[in-house]
Amino acid sequence: MSWTNVRLILAREIRDQLRDRRTLFMMAVLPILLYPMLGMSFLQISQFMHEHPVSVAVFGAENLPSSPRLIDEEHFAASLFSGVEQVGLLRVAKVPGKGSQARKEALQAAESGQYDAVVFVPADFAGQLERFHQFLSLARRQGARKGPSVAPAVEVPKPEVFWSKASDKSQVASLRLDQVLENWRRQIVLANLAAGGLPSAAAEPFQWQKTDVAQASGREVSPFWPKLLPVMMLVWALTGAFYPAVDLCAGEKERGTLETLLSSPAARGEIVLGKLATIMLFSMVTALLNVLGMGLTGWLILGQIDGIGPPPLGAAGWLLAALVPMSLLFSALCLAVAAFARSSKEGQYYLMPLLLVTMPLVVLPMAPGVELNLGYSLIPVTGVVLLLKTALEGQYLLMLRFAPPVLMVTAVCALLAIRWAIDQFNSESVLFRESERLDVGLWLHHLLQDRQPTPTVAAAVFCGIVILLVRFFMTFAVSGPGEPDFSGLARQILVMELAVILTPTLLMTALFTYRPWQTLGLRRPPAAALGAAAFLAVLLHPLVRLLGDLVERLYPVSDQVRKSLEAVDQSLLRAPYWPVLLLVAVLPAVCEELAFRGFILSGLRHLGHKWRAIVYTAIFFGLTHAILQQSLVACLLGVVIGYLAVQSNSIFPGMVFHVVNNSLAVIVGRTPVLRDLLTRDPGHPARFWITIVIATLPALLLLYGFHRLPWQRSEEEERREAILKAIEADG
To answer: Residues 362, 364, 367, 370: is their CA dihedral positive or negative?
Structure first.
């Protein structure tokens, strides 16, 4: 690695970018102009933002008591409001509420939108209140001679409030009305207490005293800024990295300068690092200028608003510290994606998919109840946002506790992204792809007419996406309400496995390939591979259960999902033994292995990298499971099964492993002894861990045995190995 070459490439790319006026405008000028203009627009719009009065109808106003008064002419009594200026925000219309149809008329008035809210006062409401009041007065006078009296069963009719959630004005009217009616009810309660000889303090014997510890410690920060600043910084870091990456890769292809750079003495890795440093620099500058512009505008405008206040002074330091690794990650991703684009126009199309993948990870920390813990700290991007949010809130001990896993995950993701970018530049088929436009008809015609022995990478990805989409829609079509019985579960499993997974796989095998046996991996495995795969599934089952338990601890399932899973387990326990094994173990193993370790894996092998094909196939396999916790464990199992399929050159060892693993889940659930042995018992923790160690050691030996098998490489894998050997020989 020549760092001199990296510095020369960095200087070259920076000069090229600074010559582009559009780049300078987007990076430096736009943040300076954008946020002050937004602030001025906010001030102008705020002049039109004020509270508007709403209309309330009181049906049966004649049934209200005379004291305390609820209505004064066209408004509610001023004593029921916290301020005199709020009296005019509720306009009152008195409507007679006599007869048996009074409630129905009040309901119709609210439904039709004639009034924003309607209060219905039932007949004899005031009379019943007065009788209860008189009883309390009488009880007070007689209490000294006869002792305490028991209140009679005085049933006061309940007034009703009608409003509509579909109308914003109706919601506002309901909120304002709730405060007024509660104050009025409190006045009635105080009058009744006085009639019974009790002090007014009996209604409210004490009051809570609240102390803001953040304000007392001098760390008072509005929750607005810790949620907004990290999200905006990461969004601008991504967009700030994308456009320079497109220009440095796809733009150079269009200008014809990429070939000159590739023919220079600089190695491909050095070229990638030079371009990466340039993109990272522009990403950081863009993010910093935008966040500073937003913070300055917020300091001047939003800082004057009660409840928001100015952004914290220490935010700049924390944002800058987190910006370095995140800009590195986003820059590497954008560089790899831009290298795949044939033109700048095509590269810009890739921004939206990249945002769609990244934005859920960025926005997730803003959801209610999402706090920094070990589970969220292991999620890329999300952990960084939560770490920043925690730091800006002043929770430094919590931040230091989870900073190592967040930084570790971010570093691993950044290294993988850089590795991907280097691989993109090492692939001539990626850098110099033909510039034909995408035509779905021509693509399908090519797949059908120019069929290969095994599917292409595009066909394998297309099959995986079709399975995921069909499964998503079929989940809502076949699931029924209520607790599932075994017949309903059997119908769902048959539809999912046969119609959703197996049928598309067989159709695409017949349409896109002419060697179905090779495509699906239906070859004879080595003699001992089937038995070794079955024994491996038995040995790894305790570890699989441990992983499932750890995943559930990190990401607990909701109560609703837990109840659904428990209902499914109970239905399976009540069902006959062998039908359950066929539906839960045998059928999924056959259908899913033909799809994932058959068609999809054989197509992804054309990527030229065995492990990349195995991992991508495992991701597709994990995504077919509806529950996140199951998807994570299934993805790890998919890596093991894919490894067995590749090393044995056959789908059957993976199929046997799948059958045994699913069967053990059923057997352990029906066998108390095995369930106790494979469940962590706080009273006997050593027994469980001894089982894990005893089972895992021979499992590793079996995996090493599969590693020694002479596996068959694809043409792309052989070509890649030859290139790597040639590079090592030259180096």
So the answer is: negative
Helix 168-195 crosses helix 125-146 at what angle (to 10 degrees)?
A: 30
Q: Quick check: 649 and 527 in contact, CB under 8 A?
A: no
DSSP string, 647-673: HHTSSHHHHHHHHHHHHHHHHHHH-HH
User: How many of the other CB atoms lie within 10 Å of CB of 87?
Assistant: 17
pLDDT more than 70, % of the chain: 86
Query: SS3 of 166, please?
Result: coil
Domain ranges of the chain: 3-35+225-431, 54-201, 527-730
Given a cut of 50, whether residue 267 has pLDDT beyond it is: yes
Return the amino acid letter for 612: R
pLDDT, tens only, 194-235: 877 777 777 777 777 776 665 555 555 567 778 888 888 888
Given a contact cutoff of 8 angstroms between Cβ atoms, the answer to whether 339 and 331 are in contact is no
Continuous segment of H or E residues that includes residue 180: helix 168-195
Farthest-apart Cα atoms in the chain, separation: 113
CATH fold of 54-201: abc type-2 transporter like fold (3.40.1710)
Predicted pLDDT at 523: 92
pLDDT of residue 598: 94
Residues 319, 389 contacting (CB under 8 angstroms): no
Q: In b/e form, how buried is each residue of 125-140, taking b as 16+ CB within 10 angstroms?
A: bbebbeebbebbeebe
Q: What local confidence, expressed as pLDDT, does residue 436 receive?
A: 47
How far, in Å, CA of 432 to CA of 709, rounded?
A: 36
What does the DSSP 8-state code read for residue 402?
H
Write a three-state SS string for 612-638: HHHHHHHHHHHHCCCCHHHHHHHHHHH
In this predicted structure, the answer to whether residue 654 has a pLDDT above a threshold of 50 is yes
**Per-residue pLDDT tens for 473-507?**
887 776 655 556 788 888 889 999 999 999 999 99
pTM (predicted TM-score): 0.77
Per-residue pLDDT, 540: 93
